[in-house]
Structure to design on (159 residues):
């Protein structure tokens, strides 16, 4: 399977983190229009978890992960509701297995994007520039949502 490389992740970070508000809105709209069902699925998590802080984080990481795939020049097919529905049960089983064992190999095998998974694990454990850190609850919720986005994008790669 095609892997998103560390250099593509670094390029995506450099691009996204250096956008002004208008540019960030443009790129967010671009990726939301490319994958409307996936974006809707990811954004619905903030409402389901009843966590307002999660919404902005999901948008940021949705754009960042989408840009990392773009930097890798991977051709991603359209993810639809049916694909998301078929994905949900196996994803929940993997999450249950991971939370029971805390074996990260379970997640890596499922999402098939080791570099992106490692990036997200590091991101969630580090303090921001201002010294703040996500609550454990928000970090866990964000990790689950982004893992789903990474996994679905990986499954939609066209060879």
């Amino acid at each position: 399977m095609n892997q998103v490389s560390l250099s593509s992740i670094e390029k995506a970070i450099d691009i996204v983190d250096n956008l002004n508000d208008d540019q960030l809105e443009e790129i967010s709209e671009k990726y939301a229009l490319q994958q409307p069902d996936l974006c809707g699925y990811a954004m619905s998590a903030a409402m389901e978890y009843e966590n307002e802080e999660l919404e902005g984080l999901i948008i940021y990481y949705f754009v960042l992960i989408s840009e990392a795939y773009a930097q890798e020049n991977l051709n991603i097919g359209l993810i639809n509701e049916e694909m998301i529905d078929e994905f949900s049960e196996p994803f929940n089983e993997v999450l249950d297995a991971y939370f029971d064992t805390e074996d990260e190999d379970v997640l890596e095998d499922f999402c098939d994007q080791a570099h992106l998974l490692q990036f997200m694990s590091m991101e969630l454990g580090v303090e921001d520039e201002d010294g703040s850190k996500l609550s454990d609850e928000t970090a866990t919720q964000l990790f689950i949502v982004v893992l789903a986005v990474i996994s679905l994008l990986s499954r939609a790669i066209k060879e």
Notes: The chain has a mean pLDDT of 93. Residues 81-101 form the longest helix (21 residues).
